Request: fold
Amino acid sequence: MNETIDTPGTPALEATGITKTFFTTDPPAQVLNGIDLAVGVGEFVAIMGASGSGKSTLLYAISGMDRPTEGTVLIDGVELTSLSDVEMAKVRLHTMGFIFQQAHLLANLNIGDNVLLPALKADPDNAEAAHKRVRGLLERFAIDHVAHHATTEVSGGQLQRAAICRAMAAEPSIIFADEPTGALNSAMSAEVMDSLTELNRDGTSLVMVTHSGACASRADRVIYLRDGLVVDEIALGKWTPEAAQDRELTISSWLAGQGF
Reply:
């Protein structure tokens, strides 16, 4: 049964009745079957489920990267589903940040310039502030020493931290992450999750798709999808290093109950 996720406080994101049907197949494939989801300001929500359950499709539908077939999505009170493509692009630039499994940095720019580009696009009349903000991000995530390196000259963990900095460059209120550690080893995954946890602790809302129970254990709440429906959720509260092992065991047990 699909469940409405109720989050106390003002929602950063509120999605209602989200469906997605792909009409390029014969017969058409309905991947999302009417999902309601609210994410509170400063909340960290992880989305899990077996392959084909609709996790990434849901992330794209609620972030404006794709349009749902039916339903509404509000982010910071703005209804995304009513926006034109140009208006949607502006909202994505100023309100949202995106992190993917691959960093997708531009090969012709160094690490620092990759982070700087969205900051300048978001506020082209205030280049000095953009440069200052980017320097602060690079220092905060300990990659300032590789700012002038090419994307091929840094580790996978450094690339993903650069992608996090890029996602934060325009000071978004919410970040969407699709398997952000999927291409990393365990040590680099921990680096990236430490960075995301720090962002959330500072008040940035996060929605993350992941196959990893360890990564999901960092979230305040985990929802589980099956056949395009939210079938269960578990609330964990804010992550602390002291509770890390217990949270991973809790998630592992919960996922086993889902047949994951």
